[in-house]
Write a structure and sequence with these properties.
Elements lengths: L3 E3 L3 E4 L2 E4 L2 E5 L3 E8 L3 E5 L4 E5 L5 E5 L1 H18 L7 E7 L4 E5 L9 E4 L3 H7 L10 H13 L8
Parallel strand pairs: 5-9, 6-10, 9-11
Antiparallel strand pairs: 1-4, 2-3, 4-5, 6-7, 7-8
Length: 160
C-alpha cells in the first residue's frame, strides 16, 4: 500500500539543482525515491559511471549511471528534510524502467548497481518484498508539509 506520492520539476537547494522523478511514502517502509527511465532495448546496469543501452536496431548508447543519479537525489532530499527538522523516515532508492521493451541486465557482484533496478510492472511486487517496521508511519499532515517544502524550493533550472 502506498500512502502518498510526490513529484517535482527542478529543485534548487543548498546551491544544487536536482529533480525528484517521484518519491512514494509507504507505511512501514518510509520513502522510496525513484529515478524513472524510459529506455528500450537491453540495458546493462552496473556500478560504473556509464550504463549501456543496446537498441534492437543495433545502435548503442551510453548514459550516466541512474543508480548514482538517484543516490545523489536521495542525499539532497535528505539534506532538505534534515535542515527543516523533517528527516524522520528511512529513504530507499530505486531505478525504474518504464518502457515495456526494456530488458534489464544488472551486473553481478562485485559490479552490481548501487541500487535496485526494476521494471515498472514489477514495482508493486518489489515494494511488497521490502522489510517492514510498524513504527515507520507518516501522517497526512506530515506528507503535505513535505510536499509544500519541495514546492517552496521548486525553481527553473539554474547553473549551480
Amino acid at each position: 500500500m502506498i500512502y502518498g506520492f510526490i513529484g517535482s520539476q527542478n529543485i534548487f537547494y543548498a546551491g544544487k539543482n536536482f529533480e525528484i522523478d517521484f518519491v512514494l511514502s509507504v507505511p512501514g517502509v518510509g520513502f522510496i525515491m525513484a529515478e524513472v527511465k524510459y529506455h528500450s532495448g537491453k540495458i546493462i546496469c552496473d556500478n560504473k559511471p556509464m550504463w549501456t543501452q543496446y537498441k534492437t536496431n543495433g545502435t548503442t548508447y551510453e548514459y550516466k549511471n541512474a543508480s548514482q543519479q538517484v543516490i545523489r537525489t536521495r542525499g539532497l532530499f535528505k539534506k532538505l528534510l534534515t535542515d527543516h527538522d523533517m528527516n524522520k523516515w528511512p529513504i530507499k532508492s530505486v531505478v525504474i524502467y518504464a518502457h515495456e521493451n526494456a530488458v534489464i541486465y544488472p551486473a553481478m557482484s562485485p559490479d552490481n548497481p548501487q541500487t535496485d533496478v526494476v521494471k515498472l510492472e514489477n514495482l508493486e511486487s518489489w515494494i511488497k518484498k521490502l522489510p517492514r517496521n510498524d513504527r515507520i508511519r507518516m501522517t497526512r499532515e506530515e506528507h503535505e508539509q513535505i510536499e509544500k517544502l519541495i514546492g517552496k524550493h521548486h525553481r527553473e533550472y539554474e547553473e549551480a
